[in-house]
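Record type: monomer structure entry
Structure origin: computed from sequence
Chain ID: A
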Amino acid sequence: MPLRAWFLLAIFAAMAAPAADDRCAGFTWNVQTELAVFARHSARIQAGSSAAAPFIGKARAYRLSLTHQSAVQFATDPGKYSDADGRFAGLIRVRIARAGRYRVSLDADAWIDVVADGRIVPAAAYTGSQECALLRKVLEFQLPAGTATIQVSDSEADHVRLAVTASTYRPAT
């Protein structure tokens, strides 16, 4: 085999090796968009502790600084709440221009609620992986147009990385 062929073979083998040890392959559906977003730089933002929470954009990762959960005034009671000392929480808002299915992704163990029109929107789907260092969980929500408030609660860490992306979900026909 010519030297050039060996060289190309070595390059392809090196490119394939990380995929064989891909710890982010444990998700039950395709999360490549979210992994790509989390692989980029995360903007730092202080999550709000009241309804006047800051806005974030879509398709960008944010490193949210959280506050002690007891100091947060949630838009509505979280779906899961722990009053254990040392838990952190925060609120952010996102503008939804067109009603549809959106994903909220997080890199840590924490509870996520999305509030729209004064009510918690139930998650339409969920996938997660304990093995993936970039991404811990992805939840899908059917959101109306308008402003949605994302409540992060019950976090052991005082910061988390979060992103909102349009879903690639397509119902079977």
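Annotation 1: Residues 26-166 form a domain with the Jelly Rolls fold (CATH 2.60.120).
Annotation 2: Helices lie at 3-20, 32-39.
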